[in-house]
Amino acid sequence: MKVIEKTIINNGAGHSAGDFEITSYRPWMNYYMGMSAAAFDIETTGLSPEKSIVILAGFALPCEEGMAVKQFFAEDPSEETDVLEAAAEMIESLDTVITYNGTSFDMPFVERRRDLLRITDRHMYRPVHNLDLLTLVRRYSDIRRFTPNLRQKTLEEFMGLWDTRIDEIGGGEIISAYYDYLDNFDGAVRDKILLHNSDDVLQLYRLLKVIEKTDFHRAASEMGFPVSCEGFDLIVRTVSLDRHGLHIRGIQRTETGDERRCWSDDGITYVFSRDGSFDIDIIAEERSGICFVSLDDLEIPEDDIDCSPRPESGLLALAGNDRIFYKNINQLSIKIIERIIKSWITEN
């Protein structure tokens, strides 16, 4: 297996890391500040994991100099296991992977190949939050109305990013190029494959700008987000609100033992199951058509919540006037989880 590493220097001009700035966008900071997030993409010899293999796994993530690209390339099909293991180790170190159709293709393809090669038991990586930009754009924006399709390259063009891509081949040509490489191990052919994958992950990170054109807080409540506190990591899968209150469902990345545990206090119920999943339920009140919680009762300072509308007299609105305040319920969820971690999990 060949490991390729390179850095795109942040010089603010041309094909540089200056195009990747996203950390100043407030909705991104609400959920991902301090988190490690990398764009992730695989190249395969086909669409079926039963009949095809993973030949390349690529990552792009911020580093001190700009953007770091790391790729694992199978110089021979027999090295697929090495590629999958290296990718698993990389994924395990991250809080979030940024993908494009990764929910339906990249992640399940990798998992299925690991199962078929019987390497799951050798290296089980922790679950990771997947920010799938295709799902984000398809479900939580109007972009589809203005583009002929939602392919990654189409979205790049829509976002004005086409001139930052420099690869010479399309995704459909990867398969034939790889078999050409296996015939004579031509380094130039290999480099074309690597460049395509490298551009895919770099462009994918640039595409994070598209979140500004989406209902990102609603997306976070339905697609989930990572939470980390005092060395304890979780992934919120969904946050929902009904007449019984607020419900947070997810999975723990940090193990706490095999037993099932329950905890309840001040209108909050937390249940950890043996399979690693967790359920948190928070009692809410309704008055004059407004659903709300008391931050005082939950022992959460008003200044700890970055929300809109702001709390009034310690009461945080979650819904009202036929609207759900997704930002409020998500920010409340994060603070409740942090409270649970600090006051119960890490102490027990």
Keywords:
30% helix; six-stranded mixed sheet; single chain; alpha+beta; globular; 348 residues; six-stranded antiparallel sheet
Structural write-up:
The chain is globular, with a radius of gyration of 22 Å. The protein has helices at 26-32, 80-92, 106-116, 133-140, 152-158, 174-184, 187-206, 216-223, 326-345, and strands spanning 2-9, 37-44, 54-62, 66-73, 96-99, 129-132, 225-229, 232-242, 245-252, 261-265, 268-272, 277-282, 285-287, 290-294, 315-320, 323-324. The model is unreliable at 12-18 (pLDDT under 50). α6 runs antiparallel to α7 (187-206) and α8 (216-223) crosses α9 (326-345). It starts with a strand and ends with a helix. It is of the alpha+beta class. A 6-stranded mixed β-sheet has the order 1-4-3-2-5-6. β10 (261-265) and β11 (268-272) form a beta hairpin. It is built from 9 helices and 16 strands.
